[in-house]
Design a protein that fits this description.
By secondary structure, the protein is an all-alpha fold. The protein has helices spanning about 1-20, 25-60, 65-75, 90-95. It has a domain at about 20-75. The chain is about 75% helix and about 0% strand. The N and C termini lie far apart (about 90 Å). Part of a complex composed of FtsB, FtsL and FtsQ.
Length: about 100
């Protein structure tokens, strides 16, 4: 009577091994779920960036206001006859005192 119980326990342990330590184990599944969540978050950030870039391209194609704004703020360009005046931020001045 003792041998069948021992054989049963050995078979049970052999069947449990892949669940805990083999391919597709709960540890591997947890690791893959974590990686998937990180990839989904990265994809969402990239999708938002793509949407922002697409909106900027649309603005640049449709009108001159976006091009003018970009030239003024990024390249510090001014129109002929204009005077460029830069006003420093107050919180930056307070930090330098």
């Amino acid at each position: 009577m003792r041998w069948p119980a021992l054989i049963f326990l050995i078979l049970l342990a052999a069947l449990q091994y892949p669940l805990w330590f083999g391919k597709g184990s709960w540890q591997e599944v947890h690791e893959l779920e974590t990686r998937l969540a990180a990839m989904k978050e990265a994809n969402q950030k990239l999708e938002q960036r793509n949407a922002d870039l697409a909106a900027e391209v649309k603005d640049l194609k449709n009108g001159y206001e976006a091009m003018e704004e970009k030239a003024r703020f990024e390249l510090n360009l001014v129109k002929p006859g204009e005077v460029f005046v830069q006003v420093p931020d107050e919180h930056l001045q307070a930090g330098n005192r």
